[in-house]
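Task 17 of the worksheet. Students: predict the tertiary structure of the chain below and write it out as structure tokens. Keep your answer in the requested format; marks are given for formatting as well as content.
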Amino acid sequence: MKKELAIVFCAGLAGAVFAQAAEKAETEGLEWDAGADLRVRHELHDNVPQSVGGVSGNQSYLRIRPRVWGEVKNEDFKLYLRLTDEFREYFNPRTSRNAQFPDEVIVDNLYLDVYDLFGDRVDLRIGRQDFIGPQGPTYGAGRILMDGTPGDGSRTAFMDAIKATIKFDEKNTLDLLAIYNNPENELSWGHTKGANGASPKEKQLTYNVPGSTDMAEYGGGLYFKSREYTEFPFELYYLFKRETKARFRGARLPGRDTHTLGARFMPKLTETISAELEGAAQVGEKDGGTAVSGYMGYAGLTYKPEVESCKPFLTAACYYLSGDRNRGINDNDSAWNPLWARWPQYSEMYPYHDRGVCYWSNLIYPNITVGSRFAKGHKVSANVGPMYAAVEDGLGGGNGDLYGWFGMVRYDFPLLNMIFGNRGDLTGHVTAEVLDPGDYYTSDTVAYFLRWEVIAKF
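Model answer:
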């Protein structure tokens, strides 16, 4: 019933707003545009440590993701549609038949923007939308709000949401968010085949335990951004998230309500040194009465010397996510809930741990990142540090708290620009990650993740 009411409310609101936009459009010229992009990735990984002593097997495969989009807009509104598919070609294991061509065509984005409502104070975006763009996450560094569909990896990242941006002035805004993400995509055609050629099934877009199904996520909140003081920008947020009951091996897993309150500060200390500080606390309850809580903290210091030719930088940081020693068994659960931030963040290898795709929790990560931008569109970065469990929970099978020493190198580069007049770009990147496991795991075999990617945008 809640889902149906949410759909009716969104449809009604969208209809009213679209009617207002249509009236404005009668006297304004419309602009039409369309395009496409094609992403090809080759990924290889092996020996990734998993729970209770396991490691992942060797895998090598191509991921091919075509997308097409179209939009109509004027200065008052925009209507945007994007369709996506992703299929794979496995080299190892050869028996895998996951996501074979043509797989599943889905509506990836479908939203309506309306600008300058209520005396030019409010912008609205209603519908299926991403909270990440070409410049990165829409909200902070993506530690709480980024990916609404973690179950399908990087194929999509959309939220079914309403976003209202209240513009107090040019430097201060408040976003009001309402989100409802289903476990399966109802706007899709064709379905992926199961492992080893099993019957076709839809990908589970949301889940909190690997293999579970039917868990919807909904909620929303407030997100305030201030650039009032150029030397001290900051953000404040409150978010509520409801995870409904899920099915797992014939049982029903309890749902969970989580309230999160946090702040992010980005002071510029000197002409070459800046800082980033973010902290958040969680409280809530699982169905049945078990209390939940959690803490997240990030502190980083970045040095950017004034070298225009290559724009180097160095960042020293520490990332903290609380854990739970008893994993909520006969006790309150104090592990950090990553909310809608289940995406790679530091590591592309992390999604292959079997706690669920990118379920970031129970972590202390002191690290150093160095990098540089040079020429036009070239960027290289490297990150290294020891990863620790905030508490020893026994999930890795070992008797300690050191996940291991982690290192990553990535190089982004342009290939071709403006292939078709004023559009058409071809870019690529290569990335390599290694993890030398520590005593948290029983495995002592070095794990690796490698990827190359080429993406064409038209």
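Marker's comment: The chain has one domain: 2-457. The helical segments are 2-25, 117-120.
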